[in-house]
Amino acid sequence: MNPAAYVGTELDIFAHARNWKRYWASHIRAYLRGDVLEVGAGIGANTGVIHNGNARSWTCLEPDPQLAARLSQTVSPGSRFEVVVGTLESMPPESRFDALVYIDVLEHIEDDRQELVRAARMLRPGGRLIVLAPAHQFLYSPFDRAIGHFRRYNRVALLACQPPSVRLERVLYLDTAGLMASSLNRLLLRQSTPTLAQIKTWDRLLVPLSRLIDPVLFYRLGKSILAVWTRT
After folding, report:
1. pLDDT at res. 96
2. How far apart (Å, rounded) are the C-alpha atoms in residues 15 and 43?
């Protein structure tokens, strides 16, 4: 996969989902130590949320040159941050990291299994492979298609992508309230593209509700799925 323009237009809208970003980030920050590679970093809307100060180095990998240019302005590259235009295939084969993180990225990659095989090869022993992705194929919409999603995932589908060199540490669904709202929209309103007002309403009202509901349901329901693997 070569550097290419991103087909989606939603990054700036979802940058306003600050409660949501803080929520899922709270589940992965502890794993982000040592040398971190953020795959498909986009405009950097997630980088500042998940960077916890414990990383020795942080590489933001982004295939779209224009997004990478914006990203460079966001993260202030220096001794800790580096912005690289490209994909895993364009990285030096000897590159090794302590964590590789995919935030709403894997669903954009057609050969998702091979992508995670490459990712696992770049992990040091004990390193973490972290994936957050949209959940449930029945929610797949024209909006998913328009922004380049090949699929959505459930637990079975995501774990089917597990490389042989890693072991599963945890997998959980997040955002029960968002799942209910999306299901109603799919059945009744059939609106494919969210507006900024809808994103802000979901983020301000439903995400805090999900933070209360999700642990009560043992993270078995949600609009997104999160998996963490450890390199053996």
Report:
1. 98
2. 9
| 92: pLDDT strictly greater than 60 | yes
CATH of the domain at 97: 3.40.50.150
Please tell me whether residue 207 adopts helix, strand or coil conformation: helix
Q: How far is CA 166 from its chain centroid?
A: 19
Longest dimension (CA), the chain: 51
pLDDT of residue 93 exceeding 60: yes
- SS3 call for 195: coil
- Distance in angstroms between the alpha carbons of the first and the last residue of the chain: 27
What is the helix, strand, coil percentage profile of the chain, to 5? 40, 25, 35
Least confident range from 50-64, 150-164, 178-192: namely 178-192
Q: Give me the domain span that covers residue 85.
A: 11-231
> How many CB atoms lie under 10 A from the CB of residue 219?
18
Q: 187 by DSSP, 3-state: which?
A: helix
H or E element that contains 180: helix 176-184
Give, in degrees to the nearest 5, the angle at Cα 83 between 41 and 31.
55
